[in-house]
Structure formats: structure tokens, C-alpha cells
């Protein structure tokens, strides 16, 4: 088989038929089989049997086994090509409506990149053109511009004033040239790793402590060598040496304090006001509620380190106002980052809700929209710590040894299961054996008696409708459906069949059935 056909992805079904058709047509043209076989067959001209068989073999080997049923009776390459087109190239009204809806509703923010957005719009327009639904190139460019966010408004105004004819390709080039930077990465001031900004007080270099300085070690060794020689120094020199040792010791103490701030600065219970953070950050998820996936995946710190965002949620803080009263404040959109050094409250986020934050040498203050002071912060180690009451996480403990109660608490777990749970967990120290029979378990395991057969029929149409839902099917239909909904009128025995992609579509189709057929009842 030619290498060109090896590069063609095999036809799986409707999901890749459009791309397969383009690649397969190009491969047949390279082998001089498209013009001499497919196109001549369309014109009614007799084709070379050997080339026809070769083209048919090429098409057969470039499809998956599941599609053999569509071409097994095809006697020519043209018949096989048309059979696959009839199976997967849906040109009906529903197909055109679905593609047109996709084309009109495409929005830039729904895609991960500008390239993906432009390719989706251009590909959908080409599919409509293949179905004889002409979408002009000017319309394609206009729809590309219509799906852009407000950040691209200057670019649209520039195109309008330039007098350039709007086409899909021109707009695509402009969009790719004017890609806006992503706003998904938030930035934070406090980082867990601050070692890069530490300065040695011996050699005045960045990146290590004075106690680990190599210059200081080499200097000490030279001093020890000098001390081995007979040498007599005056008390004045000894005093200078003492001052030097005191200075080095003082610098070492200061360096150790800075190292503690850099490496051990981990206070999960405290909250700090941070003017450099663009989002609220929590280093623990103990008090986080309503957790959901975060919009941003990483957060960039001051030392250009990226920290992973696990999720986001809401935290209820108990702040202490100036009158020493405890007030509960809800903080929304808090990012949970286990690697964060501390819990941070973003000043920009607080200000975006109409509140005001002020800082001074004595501390910080937070005012609400009406100018009422709601929270205060004190300066600790160069940071503004918010005055809060530590919230205690809720805990549960074993209160009763009632085996029936624990049987219900554990979802009606049997005795053997409770024994396994006792051996693999903490808090259950007593052997529990059900002394009585659980009536709920008995009822749940009983099968219900079948309904009695009715010997009467409904007197009018749509007085009684029987419904049934079948699925999910192991293999989906050409349209991607996996469920079958049947509605049978008891009086006329007329059957209405609906094909569904999801089980959740049942109420919608029943409402549609009632609206359409309700006028006949």
C-alpha cells in the first residue's frame, strides 16, 4: 500500500468522515485514481477495470471494520464512495440546522485558543458549503468577528476604517496576530520558597545564609593558619577581634531569623492582607465549603514559581471589629493552594466589591461600602495579620453503642461489613451484632407483585398513553443516539418512537408529544 494511504486516518464513522473524505480524495488524486475512476464514473464514461478495482481496494483498506457493511455489496469504487457518503454525509434539514447553530453561536471564550476558535468556525462553514448551503466568505469573516470578546473591539474598528474586504482568512490572520494574553494565571506576593531573595551578610551575595558562606569559611581557615604561628597581640587587637566576632554573631542571628521567615513561614490559622495578590488564597481546605473546580490552574508567585490550584470555594471568617464583637464575613472565590505559605486576602478583590482597605505603620483597616469599619489588622513580622477568631472544624465522635442505629447510619450495612469497617478504621471499638431483624432491609429485598392485566381499553384517543424507555444501547446510531422512547396510545394502539442521545431528554420529548397531539384529545 502506498505511503500516502498509510497517512490517511481510517474512517471510524460520522465523527471523522469530513476529514477522512478530504484526505482520501487527495490520496486518490496522487495515485491518478480520482479523475480516472470517480469523476469518469460520474460522467458516464467507461473506466479502466483494473484502476476501478485498485481504487475500490484503497477505499476498503482505509476504513474500519465496522464500516464494511456499507460497501460489501459495492461493485465499483464509485458505488463504495457514494455508499459511504449516503451513510455519513447527512445533508438533511436537521444536519444543516445543527451546523448553522454551531456556526452562529461559536464564541471565542468557549475555546482554549484562538487557533481552535478560528478552525471551528471555518470548518463548520465549509461543511455547510458541502451540503449546498452557501455561506459566503464575507459572512464567515463577520461571524468570526461577532464571536470575539470586547478586548478585540479596537481591532474590529481598525478593520472597519481600513476599508479592507472582510473574508474569513483575513479575519483569522488578524485574530492570530492580535492574540490577547491569558488572564487565567493569578499572581501572589507571598511564596513558600523565598530563598532566592536572601542576601548573605558576609559576601553580600544573594542565595545563601551567612553561616553557609564559603568566603567566610575560607577566611576562617586562613585565620587559623595565622594563629598557629607564634604571635603576640595587644589587648587592643583582641578587642577588635571580639567586636568582629560579636558582629558576625549578630549577623548570624539576623540571618537565622530571615531563614525562619522564608522556610518556616506556614501559619494555616492566620489570614493576611496582601496588596500583591490578585485572588484570595488558602493553604488549607479545612474550612472551605462549596468547593468547585477553579478557573485558573496555576498561580505565579513573586519568585516566578508556579503553584497548582486544587479548587476554589467559600470561607466564613469570624473577624473581630474595633468594639471586640465577632462578625462573620463570607469570602468567596478562595483558591485552595497547598503549597501556599499563608492564607492571603487579596486587597484588589476586596476593593472590587466596593470596600476600602487602608494601611499604616500601626496596622490595617477594612471598611464596607458605607464606610463602617468591619475589620482590623495588626503588623506582625512585616505583614498585616487580620484579627480573626480561629474557626474550629466540626468533628463527630461515637456517642451510642446502639447496633440498630449504627446499622442505619452506615447505610444498612450487614454484620460482616461492620466488622471489616471496625478493623480498617478508628472510632468503633465494640463488636456490633444485629439482635433484631431490620424491617427496611426486608422490604428493600422483596420484589413487588406484578400489576394485574387490564381487560379494558381507553374509550378515546390519548386518554391513556403507555411509555417505555430502552437503553443505553451498546452501539449508538448514525445520529449518535443510544436510547429509544416509545409512547403507545391505548385506544388506537398508535406507536410514537423518539431517538434520544441522553436519558435526560425524556421530559422534553414527552412535553413535545403533549403539545403536538394534545389538540386531538
UniProtKB/TrEMBL annotation:
<dbReference type="InterPro" id="IPR036397">
    <property type="entry name" value="RNaseH_sf"/>
</dbReference>
<dbReference type="InterPro" id="IPR039537">
    <property type="entry name" value="Retrotran_Ty1/copia-like"/>
</dbReference>
<keyword id="KW-0808">Transferase</keyword>
<dbReference type="Pfam" id="PF14223">
    <property type="entry name" value="Retrotran_gag_2"/>
</dbReference>
<feature type="domain" description="CCHC-type">
    <location>
        <begin position="199"/>
        <end position="213"/>
    </location>
</feature>
<feature type="region of interest" description="Disordered">
    <location>
        <begin position="220"/>
        <end position="255"/>
    </location>
</feature>
<dbReference type="GO" id="GO:0015074">
    <property type="term" value="P:DNA integration"/>
</dbReference>
<keyword id="KW-0479">Metal-binding</keyword>
<keyword id="KW-0695">RNA-directed DNA polymerase</keyword>
<dbReference type="Pfam" id="PF22936">
    <property type="entry name" value="Pol_BBD"/>
</dbReference>
<comment type="function">
    <text>The aspartyl protease (PR) mediates the proteolytic cleavages of the Gag and Gag-Pol polyproteins after assembly of the VLP.</text>
</comment>
<dbReference type="GO" id="GO:0005524">
    <property type="term" value="F:ATP binding"/>
</dbReference>
<dbReference type="GO" id="GO:0004519">
    <property type="term" value="F:endonuclease activity"/>
</dbReference>
<keyword id="KW-0239">DNA-directed DNA polymerase</keyword>
<dbReference type="GO" id="GO:0008233">
    <property type="term" value="F:peptidase activity"/>
</dbReference>
<dbReference type="InterPro" id="IPR012337">
    <property type="entry name" value="RNaseH-like_sf"/>
</dbReference>
<feature type="compositionally biased region" description="Polar residues">
    <location>
        <begin position="232"/>
        <end position="250"/>
    </location>
</feature>
<dbReference type="GO" id="GO:0008270">
    <property type="term" value="F:zinc ion binding"/>
</dbReference>
<keyword id="KW-0540">Nuclease</keyword>
<keyword id="KW-0863">Zinc-finger</keyword>
<keyword id="KW-0067">ATP-binding</keyword>
<dbReference type="GO" id="GO:0003887">
    <property type="term" value="F:DNA-directed DNA polymerase activity"/>
</dbReference>
<keyword id="KW-0378">Hydrolase</keyword>
<dbReference type="GO" id="GO:0006310">
    <property type="term" value="P:DNA recombination"/>
</dbReference>
<dbReference type="GO" id="GO:0006508">
    <property type="term" value="P:proteolysis"/>
</dbReference>
<dbReference type="GO" id="GO:0003964">
    <property type="term" value="F:RNA-directed DNA polymerase activity"/>
</dbReference>
<keyword id="KW-0645">Protease</keyword>
<dbReference type="InterPro" id="IPR025724">
    <property type="entry name" value="GAG-pre-integrase_dom"/>
</dbReference>
<keyword id="KW-0229">DNA integration</keyword>
<keyword id="KW-0460">Magnesium</keyword>
<dbReference type="InterPro" id="IPR054722">
    <property type="entry name" value="PolX-like_BBD"/>
</dbReference>
<keyword id="KW-0548">Nucleotidyltransferase</keyword>
<keyword id="KW-0547">Nucleotide-binding</keyword>
<keyword id="KW-0862">Zinc</keyword>
<dbReference type="InterPro" id="IPR001878">
    <property type="entry name" value="Znf_CCHC"/>
</dbReference>
<dbReference type="Pfam" id="PF13976">
    <property type="entry name" value="gag_pre-integrs"/>
</dbReference>
<keyword id="KW-0917">Virion maturation</keyword>
<protein>
    <submittedName>
        <fullName>Retrovirus-related Pol polyprotein from transposon TNT 1-94</fullName>
    </submittedName>
</protein>
<keyword id="KW-0255">Endonuclease</keyword>
<keyword id="KW-1188">Viral release from host cell</keyword>
<dbReference type="GO" id="GO:0003676">
    <property type="term" value="F:nucleic acid binding"/>
</dbReference>
<dbReference type="InterPro" id="IPR036875">
    <property type="entry name" value="Znf_CCHC_sf"/>
</dbReference>
Amino acid at each position: 500500500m502506498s505511503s500516502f494511504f498509510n497517512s490517511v486516518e481510517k474512517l471510524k464513522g460520522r465523527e471523522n468522515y469530513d476529514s477522512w473524505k478530504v484526505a482520501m480524495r487527495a490520496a486518490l488524486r496522487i495515485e491518478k485514481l480520482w479523475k480516472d475512476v470517480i469523476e469518469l464514473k460520474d460522467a458516464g464514461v467507461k473506466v479502466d477495470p483494473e484502476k476501478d478495482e485498485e481504487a475500490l481496494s484503497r477505499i476498503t483498506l482505509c476504513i474500519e471494520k465496522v464500516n464494511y457493511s456499507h460497501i460489501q455489496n459495492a461493485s465499483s469504487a464509485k458505488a463504495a464512495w457514494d455508499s459511504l457518503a449516503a451513510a455519513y454525509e447527512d445533508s438533511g434539514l436537521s444536519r444543516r440546522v445543527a451546523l448553522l447553530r454551531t456556526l452562529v453561536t461559536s464564541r471565542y471564550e468557549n475555546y482554549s485558543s484562538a487557533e481552535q476558535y478560528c478552525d471551528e468556525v471555518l470548518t463548520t462553514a465549509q461543511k455547510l458549503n458541502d451540503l449546498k448551503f452557501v455561506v459566503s466568505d464575507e459572512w464567515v469573516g463577520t461571524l468570526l468577528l461577532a464571536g470575539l470578546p470586547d478586548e478585540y473591539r479596537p481591532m474590529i474598528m481598525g478593520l472597519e476604517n481600513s476599508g479592507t474586504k472582510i473574508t474569513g482568512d483575513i479575519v483569522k490572520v488578524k485574530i492570530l496576530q492580535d492574540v490577547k494574553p491569558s488572564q487565567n494565571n493569578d499572581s501572589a506576593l507571598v511564596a513558600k520558597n523565598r530563598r532566592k531573595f536572601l542576601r548573605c551578610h558576609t559576601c553580600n551575595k544573594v542565595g545563601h545564609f551567612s553561616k553557609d558562606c564559603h568566603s567566610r569559611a575560607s577566611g576562617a581557615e586562613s585565620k587559623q593558619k595565622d594563629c598557629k604561628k607564634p604571635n603576640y597581640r595587644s589587648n587592643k587587637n583582641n578587642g577588635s577581634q571580639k567586636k568582629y566576632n560579636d558582629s558576625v554573631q549578630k549577623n548570624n542571628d539576623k540571618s537565622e531569623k530571615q531563614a525562619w521567615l522564608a522556610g518556616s513561614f506556614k501559619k494555616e490559622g492566620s489570614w493576611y492582607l496582601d496588596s500583591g495578590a490578585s485572588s484570595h488564597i488558602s493553604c488549607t481546605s479545612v474550612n472551605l465549603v462549596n468547593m468547585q473546580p477553579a478557573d485558573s490552574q496555576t498561580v505565579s508567585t513573586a519568585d516566578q514559581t508556579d503553584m497548582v490550584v486544587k479548587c476554589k470555594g467559600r470561607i466564613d471568617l469570624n473577624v473581630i471589629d474595633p468594639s471586640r464583637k465577632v462578625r462573620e464575613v463570607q469570602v468567596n472565590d478562595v483558591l485552595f493552594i497547598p503549597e501556599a505559605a499563608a492564607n492571603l486576602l487579596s486587597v484588589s478583590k476586596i476593593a472590587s466589591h466596593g470596600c476600602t482597605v487602608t494601611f499604616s505603620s500601626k496596622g490595617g483597616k477594612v471598611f464596607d461600602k458605607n464606610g463602617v469599619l468591619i475589620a482590623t489588622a495588626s503588623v506582625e513580622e512585616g505583614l498585616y495579620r487580620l484579627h480573626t477568631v480561629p474557626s474550629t472544624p466540626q468533628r463527630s465522635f461515637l456517642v451510642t453503642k446502639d447496633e440498630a442505629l449504627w446499622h442505619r447510619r452506615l447505610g444498612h450495612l450487614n454484620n460482616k461489613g461492620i466488622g471489616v469497617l471496625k478493623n480498617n478504621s478508628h472510632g468503633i471499638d465494640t463488636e456490633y451484632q444485629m439482635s433484631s431483624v431490620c424491617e427496611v432491609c426486608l422490604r428493600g429485598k422483596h420484589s413487588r407483585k406484578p400489576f394485574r392485566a387490564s381487560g379494558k381499553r381507553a374509550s378515546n384517543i390519548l386518554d391513556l398513553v403507555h411509555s417505555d424507555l430502552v437503553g443505553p444501547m451498546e452501539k449508538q446510531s448514525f445520529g449518535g443516539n443510544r436510547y429509544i422512547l416509545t409512547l403507545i396510545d391505548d385506544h388506537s394502539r398508535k406507536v410514537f418512537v423518539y431517538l434520544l442521545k441522553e436519558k435526560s431528554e425524556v421530559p422534553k420529548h414527552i412535553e413535545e408529544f403533549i403539545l403536538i397531539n394534545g389538540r386531538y384529545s
